[in-house]
Amino acid sequence: SQQGEEDPQALSIQEGENATMNCSYKTSINNLQWYRQNSGRGLVHLILIRSNEREKHSGRLRVTLDTSKKSSSLLITASRAADTASYFCATDAGYNFNKFYFGSGTKLNVKP
Amino acid sequence: EPEVTQTPSHQVTQMGQEVILRCVPISNHLYFYWYRQILGQKVEFLVSFYNNEISEKSEIFDDQFSVERPDGSNFTLKIRSTKLEDSAMYFCASEYGNEKLFFGSGTQLSVL
Predict the structure, then answer these.
(1) In this predicted structure, what is the pLDDT of residue B66?
(2) Chain B residues in contact with A99 (beta carbon < 8 A)
(3) Measured between beta carbons, which residues in chain B are less than 8 angstroms from residue A104?
(4) B34-73 confidence digits (pLDDT tens)
(5) Average pLDDT of every residue of chain B
(6) Which of A38-42, A63-67, B53-57 shows the lowest mean pLDDT across its residues?
(7) What confidence tier does B110 reach under pLDDT thresholds 50, 70, 90?
(8) Which of A74-87 are b and which e, b meaning 16 or more Cβ less than 10 Å from the residue's Cβ?
(9) Looking at chain B, which runs of residues are DSSP E strands?
(10) pLDDT exceeding 90 applies to what percent of chain B?
């Protein structure tokens, strides 16, 4: 299966600290995306990085992509209690733009 | 901001009954998806739909499942004869074609 798998499964940090989550996948991709899910709600798109990009920033988010290692990381700097959520990476199927695979997510808890 | 709307938010049904989950995607979006998530864990791809036909489906999406876009605005998922293991949160998503998915808030399906 192509599914991205996030690591760690759970992460607990203090407000103000940085949070790093990782994602690994198995086959070639066109792009990789990160989504956030608040408890019991739908997923919200955070950032998309294409296979020819190595790093992307959006506000306090920094995403890296290493296609040789088939891995990505999401860094949230200066975390806030409101960042508490589950974070998922999503990969496409490489050959097909209309199929996106999600993993099990990283549950981030930011303590105030 | 436009959003994907799903109804109902909760659906309880007896095993063997048919259920229809409804979604109204964002109006100018072209690609439509159903995903499901069991117990806040892995987000599983079910099916993608484009130009009034299924473009991709997973192994989960067997003959008991069907999708329709009957009137150009609604997008429905039908489960013909529900099983206990169909209990999950079902998410509808849509995108314009830039691969950024917009998700609804989900329908929690409980099969008794």
Answers:
(1) 97
(2) 45, 48, 55-56
(3) 41-42
(4) 999 998 778 999 999 999 999 999 999 999 999 999 888 8
(5) 94
(6) A38-42
(7) very high
(8) bebeebeeebbbbb
(9) 5-7, 10-13, 19-24, 31-37, 43-50, 53-57, 65-68, 75-79, 88-95, 102-103, 107-111
(10) 84
Q: Please report the residues numbered 26 through 45 in chain B whose beta carbons come closer than 8 angstroms to any beta carbon of chain A.
A: 31, 33, 35, 40-45
Location of structure tokens 């994602």? A23
- Secondary structure of chain A as H, E, C letters: CCCCEEECCEEEEECCCCEEEEEECCCCCCEEEEEEECCCCCEEEEEEEECCCCEEEECCEEEEEECCCCEEEEEECCCCHHHCEEEEEEEECCCCCCCEEECCCEEEEEEC
Residues A98, B35: C-beta atoms closer than 8 Å: no
The residue-averaged pLDDT of B19-25 equals 97
Distance CA A90, CA A93 (A): 10
Distance CA A12, CA A19 (A): 9
